[in-house]
Amino acid sequence: MRPLVLNIQKCSIHDGPGIRTTVFFKGCPLDCTWCHNPESQNYKVDFMYDPEKCTHCYTCIDKCEHHAICVKEGELIRLENKCELCGECLDWCLTGSRELVGDEYEISELVKEIEKDSIFYEESGGGVTLSGGEVMCQDLKYLDSLVKTLHNRGIDVAIDTCGYAPQENFEQIYPNVDRFLYDIKLADELSHKKFTGKSNSLILNNLKYLDSVGADINIRIPLIEGVNVDKDNKEIKRIIEILRPLRISSINLLPYHNIMEHKYKKLDKEYKCEIFKKPSNEKLEEIKELFLENNFNNIKIGG
Q1: CATH fold of the domain at 56-101
Q2: What is residue 257's predicted lDDT score, i.e. its pLDDT?
Q3: Helix (H) or strand (E) holding 11
Q4: CATH code, 4-43+105-301
């Protein structure tokens, strides 16, 4: 089955060098408590509903052939056991309060969409970034064919990855990838399991593999008070020790933000991020200085 595309973002300047088109795929093996794109976690189509946009015209109830929408205590409720995710209710929703997330693309369709912005790539040194969710856990045959096609057409290809995927997936595609934007969240394995649901051993092993084959590695570290940022920078220092022997092209320190809260409401998912905070600007500079002191030169706060 073809992977589902969550979004195609044009003119991105935060997902690699130059002006880029970022393709977000649905589905991720991690379950990060602070996930900024909860609609990307599921490998299947998701339904999102924004009650603040809804005018309660109830047209969707009348038009749903599966009788999957009802009113309970004045609110519209979707009955998951009846909903076929057919999209019929979307066609009659004048306010756009209802949406289905996830579309299939033939490789030729996706490449055609990407190539619309070729002139921007050429003039800015940009290209395409494949992101997610987790792109490295998508159908390998599809992914391999996509990156080969883009590479053969002279388009710079970046992979934004959490690193939690079979090593053979990286072995298959790395020759046609220009750079990897590689997330490192935590060094401590128990903490990694606590906050993401998975061990970080596979992630760190894949990172070492990419280094061994000479891949261009760009590290991205989300900085979150209460997760990997503390008074003594213990976790950051452990991350530095992991990265020290590797050939790292750049490091992006990404301050936590909570602008995604509305997405959880639209997905009817529990929002668990109230405990997290963005580090102060002083702390961010302190962490940046730590990396500089350890001979990492290309350090940036932000995307």
Answers
A1: Alpha-Beta Plaits (3.30.70)
A2: 87
A3: strand 4-12
A4: 3.20.20.70
Residue owning tokens 């500089």:
292
Residue with tokens 């599809």: 142
Q: Is residue 25 scored above 80 in pLDDT?
A: yes
Residue ranges of domains in the chain: 4-43+105-301, 56-101
The two tokens of residue 81 are 């056991």
Given this model, what pLDDT does residue 1 score? 67
Strands (E), 106-258: 127-131, 156-161, 179-183, 217-223, 250-255
Q: Residue 3: pLDDT above 80?
A: yes
Q: Rounded distance, CA 266 to CA 269, Å?
A: 8
Tokens encoding 72: 């309970």
Q: Do 278 and 225 form a contact (C-beta atoms < 8 A)?
A: yes
Q: What is the pLDDT of residues 31-64, one digit of tens each?
A: 999 999 999 999 999 999 999 999 999 999 999 9
Q: How many CA atoms lie within 13 A of 214 on its CB side?
A: 2
Sign of CA dihedral 259, 264, 102, 5: positive
How far apart are alpha carbons 278 and 46 in whole angstroms? 29
Nearest residue to 181 via CA among 128, 219, 140, 210: 219
Sign of the CA dihedral with 17 first, then 22, 26, and 32 last: positive
